[in-house]
């Protein structure tokens, strides 16, 4: 469904990704794990068109997208829930969700809005509330809900559990699994490597801009090197 072929990305003179090749098959949850500064968020931002690779190519359903503008990438079926949530804090929950569907003109928007509120009942309770007044967990649900409103076939999730209480982390990962079970392919970047590997069909380990390991989520959970570096021994 998605593949990056040898992409290298720079911030000025600083290289953030080096010859990175990954693939995501339809129906999978694929996780990218690694330490802070490894390039995980850069990879998602490059896939969604916010950054451009200096070298290499990105294909979505065999169509090259590495020179495609971000709003056109959304129209193709890729939606990005960014690190730090990045919701519109001075707008209501409803307005944030409506903005998620801004590239759509079809008749299914109202039904998808209802689906998002069924999946996130707290958003229904706070539908008229200013998004900036909600808790961190609620804002994360809104960020994912907003991303779902474009009706993506591939959902990019960047650190969805960051800064959340343990009970909310459990809920977020359950929701991600449910979204995947309903047919949406997921590429997730997570510092909570243990939780990410538990739900991932496959995963990649990114270190200082390089892919150093790839395997099934289950095998990486049991890998001694991964345990020592990312799972606390």
Task: Give structural notes.
38% of the residues lie in helices and 26% in strands. It contains ten helices and ten strands. Strand 4 (55-60) and strand 5 form a beta hairpin. The chain has a six-stranded mixed β-sheet with strand order 6-7-8-3-9-10, sandwiched between helices. A four-stranded antiparallel β-sheet has the order 2-1-4-5, with helices on one face. Helix 3 packs parallel to helix 6 (136-148). With 233 residues, it is α/β, with parallel strands linked by helices. It has helices at 40-47, 70-76, 93-100, 109-119, 121-125, 136-148, 166-181, 193-199, 217-222, 224-230, and strands at residues 2-11, 14-24, 29-33, 55-60, 63-64, 78-81, 154-158, 185-189, 202-207, 210-216.
Question: Which helices and strands occur, and which strands form pairs?
Answer:
Blueprint: E1 2-11, E2 14-24, E3 29-33, H1 40-47, E4 55-60, E5 63-64, H2 70-76, E6 78-81, H3 93-100, H4 109-119, H5 121-125, H6 136-148, E7 154-158, H7 166-181, E8 185-189, H8 193-199, E9 202-207, E10 210-216, H9 217-222, H10 224-230
Parallel strand pairs: 3-8, 3-9, 6-7, 7-8
Antiparallel strand pairs: 1-2, 1-4, 4-5, 9-10
Helix pairs in contact: 3-6
Question: Which structural traits does this protein have?
Answer:
233 residues, alpha/beta, six-stranded mixed beta sheet, four-stranded antiparallel beta sheet, 10 strands, globular
The amount of beta strand, in percent, is 25-35%
Would you count the extended β strands for me?
Answer: 10
Q: What does the overall shape look like?
A: globular
Average pLDDT reading: 91
Structural class by sheet pairing and helices: alpha/beta
Total of DSSP H or I helical runs spanning 4+ residues: 10
- Low-confidence stretches are none
Distance between the termini: 34 Å
Evaluate the radius of gyration.
Answer: 17 Å
H/E element sequence: EEEHEEHEHHHHEHEHEEHH
Helix content: 25-40%
Spatial strand order of the main sheet: 6-7-8-3-9-10
How would a crystallographer describe the biggest sheet?
A: 6 strands, mixed
């Amino acid at each position: 469904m998605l593949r990056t072929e040898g992409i290298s990305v720079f911030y000025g003179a600083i290289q953030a990704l080096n010859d990175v090749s990954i693939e995501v098959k339809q129906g999978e949850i694929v996780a990218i794990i690694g330490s802070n500064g490894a390039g995980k968020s850069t990879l998602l931002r490059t896939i969604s068109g916010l950054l451009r690779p200096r070298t290499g190519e990105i294909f979505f359903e065999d169509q090259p997208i590495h020179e495609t503008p971000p709003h056109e990438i959304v129209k193709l079926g890729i939606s990005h829930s960014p690190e730090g949530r990045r919701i519109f804090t001075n707008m209501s929950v409803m307005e944030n969700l409506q903005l998620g569907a801004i590239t759509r003109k079809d008749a299914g928007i109202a039904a998808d809005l209802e689906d998002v509120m069924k999946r996130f009942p707290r958003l229904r309770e706070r539908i008229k509330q200013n998004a900036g007044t909600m808790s961190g967990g609620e804002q994360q649900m809104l960020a994912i809900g907003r991303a779902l409103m474009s009706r993506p076939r591939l959902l990019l999730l960047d650190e969805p559990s960051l800064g959340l209480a343990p009970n909310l982390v459990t809920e977020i990962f359950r929701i991600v699994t449910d979204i995947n079970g309903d047919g949406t392919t997921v590429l997730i970047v997570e510092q909570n490597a243990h939780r990410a590997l538990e739900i991932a069909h496959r995963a990649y380990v990114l270190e200082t801009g390089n892919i150093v390991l790839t395997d099934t989520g289950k095998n990486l959970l049991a890998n001694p090197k991964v345990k020592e570096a990312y799972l606390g021994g």
